[in-house]
Amino acid sequence: xxxxxxxxxxxKVTGLSAHPPTAAATSAASAxxxxxxxxxxxxxxxxxxVDLPPHVPEDARRSLERAYTAHMDGRLEEAIELYQESIxxxxxxxxxxxxxxxxxxxxxxxxxxxxxxxxxxxDPEFGNPYNDIGAYxxxxxxxxxxxxxxxxxxxxVRYEPRHYPHINLGHIHVIRNDITSAVRELRAALDIDxxxxxxxxxxxxxxxxxx
Length: 211
Prior knowledge:
This protein is mainly alpha-helical. The chain has helices at residues 23-38, 58-72, 76-89, 93-105, 109-122, 128-139, 143-154, 163-175, 179-192, 197-210.
């Protein structure tokens, strides 16, 4: 699932301005792309960690687990069918969000966003789809919209990887050459997850740019 923009959902830098880029902006964009390539985190969740609501029936849980296995094995069409099966048995925010994740891997951004909206409708407290919408909007170059969703992800009640929206916001700030704001977000991310080595590496790089 798209957690941060330096993972699977890498931002597109082109098409963000109606004016020709300055040399500084071009350099920042190039650095951003280089950083995006270097901060790669396996998009892996552990299904045992998915805290499905207690009312979800066992057959829906099994379908979700089978979908996840197919998803991780790269059998995306099978995963789509199984996530849809789980949803038909008992709609959950998790299944909708994971289905959106598969769509994002196929670059079906609008469908991925639609699934996240469905996830939020099922459980507004589940934080993952807020962040994922932000990540997909970054892919589409819709950065102002992405910021709004990432800020909402920070406030979600049920959301374990809370460092993701900070990293995504940091990526947006790098695209915009706002290094001070990017540093602020990466520091916040590392306060939550000190072990995120690629984010720490990027923070050190950005601090070097400020010195």
